[in-house]
Amino acid sequence: MHDIRVQVERYAREYGLDFFETVFEVLGFDEINMVAAYGGFPNRYPHWRFGMEYDRLSKGYEYGLSKIYEMVINNDPSYAYLLESNMDVDQKLVMAHVYGHVDFFKNNFMFRHTNRKMMDQMANHATRVRRYQDRLGVEKVEEFIDRGLSLENLIDYQSPYVKRRAERGDRADEPQLARGLKTDREYMQDYINPPEFLEEQQRRLDEAAQRARKVPERPERDVLLFLLEHAPLEDWERDVLAILRDEAYYFAPQGQTKIMNEGWATYWHSTIMTQKALTAAELIDYADHHSGTLATSPGQLNPYKLGVELWRDIEDRWNKGRFGKDYEDCDSYEERRGWDRKLGLGREKIFEVRKHYNDVTFIDEFLTLEFCLAQRLFTYGYSEKHQRWEVLERDFKKVKEKLLHMLTNFGQPTIAVEDGNFENRGELLLIHKHDGVDLKLDYARDTLAHVERIWRRPVNLVTRVDGRGTLMRFDGREHSDRKIEL
Amino acid sequence: MSLKIKQDHARFRDIVRGRIKNNLRKYVQKGEMIGRKGKDFITIPVPTIDIPHFRFGEKQQGGVAQGDGQPGDPLSAGQGDGTGQAGQGEGHHLLEVDVSLDELAEILGEELQLPRIEPRGRDRIVTTKLKYTGISPSGPESLRHFKRTYKQALRRQIASGAYSWKKPVIVPMREDRRYRTWKQVPLPETNAVVIYMMDVSGSMGDEQKEVVRIESFWIDTWLRRHYKGLETRYVIHDAVAREVDRETFFHTRESGGTMISSAYKLCREIIDTDYGAAAWNVYPFHFSDGDNWSADDTRLCVDLLRTGILPNVNLFCYGQVESPYGSGQFIKDLRETVGPQENVALSEIADKEAIYGSIKQFLGKGK
Questions:
Q1: What is the pLDDT of residues A178-199, one digit of tens each?
Q2: Average pLDDT of chain B?
Q3: Of A281, A474, B72, B174, whose Cβ has the fewest other Cβ atoms within 10 Å?
Q4: Best residue in B44, B54, B58, B73 to probe A by mutation, most A CBs within 10 Å?
Q5: Would the CB atoms of A443 and B52 count as touching at under 8 Å?
Q6: Strands B41-46 and B95-100: what pairing?
Q7: Cβ separation of B67 and A47 shorter than 8 Å?
Q8: All residues at 6 or more sequence positions from B168 whose CB lies less than 8 Å from its CB, including other chains
Q9: Are residue B196 and residue B181 in the same domain, yes or no?
Q10: What is the tally of structural domains in chain B?
Q11: CATH of residue B262
Q12: Is residue B305 domain-shared with residue B182, that is, in the same domain?
């Protein structure tokens, strides 16, 4: 095994992959199921949902439905787990795949802000939560975690990259007076600062002051942060919520680069295997498992497949010079099909792309009409008329739009805190920025109830249901919906 | 690496157990659960055990996929399920959990507050159990005792002068090997038999039989919790009674009259021949719609119960399943005659929803 590792690592470096030191551990299926249930970490805070995930994985394995070949943790050094019962050729493939991931973790911009010592951090979180449980009882802490987890997707997926919150401090609390423009001459005052102008200015200042008193000043996308800062939490509750938020931010970039990252790792395992590492005897097993990774059951979108196909397409286009103004402007089908400037820029290009893109920008920039046709992509939706899922469109624009929508904000509804003192009663007002798809209502109600338990005052959510503005409300005992104008 | 997850897993099972308990009434009256029964486990769909999030309604959202098909074509099975959502494919399945029948019985007992059954005839039936007791110089390799083998080899080498403290190498020989041995310990065990009897005359319809089927499943489950090796026997009757297998029991429909005494006679015979009261816990259950052929036959039934059946059984249960055709007289007669007896349980079962309460009436006696 050691020899395989040294060999694969050497190939990976020769191709220019740049990764953290990677520690491989070999685990039995029970252990690998456990680690997978914990999201890849050997040590997490205690919670039943990990037990549930473990139950699911173990059953999947027992019934032969699924099997986890590998797992990588974005950490420095990175940790990768291999399944003990894999054949040597599998381990080789998996290692090559792993180096692809680690290279991606290390270089892609989305990961620039993630904690590379997350392994320690997670263990640290686990200890803290355990301590609370010892002190306060398992169920009490667990129940709070349930509520917190219910909100784990209410973070600002952009925030690590944007500095959005204004620095506070210099704002005085006393009302400001409009002074108008400066003039030394008393008699000019009325000309330079006519009363209407001064009034107008005063009004603006007052409005600004009013806005500043509102909490939050502008809609806060990081709902968890808002709750941390403003909800009446006990110290341990605040700490637990902060832990959940921290972990949510850690996992977010992995979700936002899934297609790229899996595609990248797949691209590299197949490149390394087919060009270097594979022996003739291993070919059949390799082909079998590789095709397993890329299988699209009829109509399914497999991120491994879509990702690797896009990477190959980019490489091919930049090798042949199928980009830029000349190519875009070319109208002749024949000419376009035979287009090959022999630029050989493919490798260079994909390395550049793996650095500066995430799934949204990746798809936006590189999913072309030709690609869409070649891969036979389509959109589907539920037909109320036929009570079944149906193929909707093969139109390139629609496909791309849908795909981008699914990836934007991590495929989650965009929800922000609008007001922490709604109707001047200390209630919480959340706003769902409706972009064409309604919320799943039963889930929304349950989630609202969880928010209420944290906010400890009634909570409200503005959304749109069947095209009509709706204010959903939970006051601690009852749910109610009210139609409103939007 | 020890499996830390076990704790979380146990916690998850606890929560599932709580959900099952809350929904038990619903499960009890549903027959489909029986269809999900494996050998020792039963698969139960547990509603809402996931953590709610704000998320999109799937049906409006749709997604992107790859493959054949023209607009308007239906997606094939499994398509469009958990696709898209780039890695967020949480799946929209109901959670299904396996619960052992033992655990299910436990839950049933807790929820219905059933008393533990005190088996009669304890220590009468004896089975054996293996117990590791000693060490022997021969045995299967899988039972080799490494420490004792080592000691033996050391002892031999010292005795023969082959041991040197400068080079402390111990090489066990064939005859040094030691193995664990076992002996068979007798284990007292109590056995039980359930004798199900059912009226299959024309007035007992499918609905009535479904009630009996569900109820007998839960009775089995509960009794199995208390007795190793529970046996079941099935008797059907109209004007005559005969013993059948389980399959036939639930699927036979006859026309004609009803003579309950015929079943009770056969029941007594079965007890007398196969299940001596000294060694067996016997549970006759009889289900009918309460119509008997004649008052004479009912008198005969009571007689049979008093003399032949009740003295030899833990508990005799009669369940009267309501049917539009039955007069429901039989239970009244039983109430007046044998009703007050300690080991008789009578229950009227109006419909599936009444099963829950009926089980409690039967098993609540702790017999």
A1: 777 777 777 777 777 788 888 8
A2: 81
A3: B174
A4: B54
A5: yes
A6: antiparallel
A7: no
A8: none
A9: no
A10: 3
A11: 3.40.50.410
A12: no
